[in-house]
Structure formats: structure tokens, C-alpha cells
Amino acid sequence: MKTEHKSKKNANNKEDSPPPVTIFHGSNSDDIEHAKSFWRSLTLHPPLESRLVSADIRQRLRIAPAPDKATGNKKTTKDAEAFESALFLHKAHEKLIQDERVRYRTLSQQRESVLDLLHKQREQRIQKEMISKDFK
């Protein structure tokens, strides 16, 4: 088997030269026919990168978001921040209300104790007046 390069013009000009031709010298005709049919049936596929369409490679870029959606991401983060701040303010308000209830409860207990003391003192004063009424 022998490989020859044939060129029509200049031997140094590779752009115009045809692909190399394989010549079978010293082989019988059956082997030559089998080899020719084999080489005709064999086709090399180009690499994936050189194909225009391939199932293995994503051909399309992602679709750019619409202008409303592009600002929507910022809006959702602002909404999330607003929600978190509103939640924080709500919890702070609940804490203030709870503290106020505790303060009112202590004031109410103090008032009850003062009223009880006043009532006790009144009873004692009335008893003393009853005792002194006999001597007046």
C-alpha cells in the first residue's frame, strides 16, 4: 500500500492539493474491492464542537429577563427587608404592650395594697372613736 499526494499546481501550495490517495500495489482484486468498500462505508464524524447542532451541547443562551423582572429581583429583596423590618417592629410593639401590662399589673397591686391599708386604718380609727365616744 502506498500513499501519494497529487497536486495540479505547485507542490508547496497545500490549499489546492487534493486529499492523499491510497493505492494498493501487490494485492489481489478481492482484497482491493473489500478495502475500497470498507473505506467508502467508513465516514468520520466531525468533532462535536464543529457541528452546527448537537443534542449534547446547549445551543441557546438563557433568555434575558424582562425589564420588569430585572427590577423584580431588587423589589423582592426590598420586600423581604420591609417584611423583616415590619416583623421586627411588630415584635417590638408586642414587647412594649407586654411591658405596659406588667407595669399596670404592679400599679394595680400597689393600689390594692394601699386601699387595703387605708381600709384597715379606717377600721382602727372607727374602733378608737367608738371607744372614745363613751368618754366624751
UniProtKB/TrEMBL annotation:
<feature type="region of interest" description="Disordered">
    <location>
        <begin position="1"/>
        <end position="28"/>
    </location>
</feature>
<dbReference type="Pfam" id="PF17664">
    <property type="entry name" value="HOATZ-like"/>
</dbReference>
<dbReference type="GO" id="GO:0060271">
    <property type="term" value="P:cilium assembly"/>
</dbReference>
<comment type="similarity">
    <text>Belongs to the HOATZ family.</text>
</comment>
<feature type="compositionally biased region" description="Basic residues">
    <location>
        <begin position="1"/>
        <end position="11"/>
    </location>
</feature>
<protein>
    <recommendedName>
        <fullName>Cilia- and flagella-associated protein HOATZ</fullName>
    </recommendedName>
</protein>
<dbReference type="InterPro" id="IPR040681">
    <property type="entry name" value="HOATZ-like"/>
</dbReference>
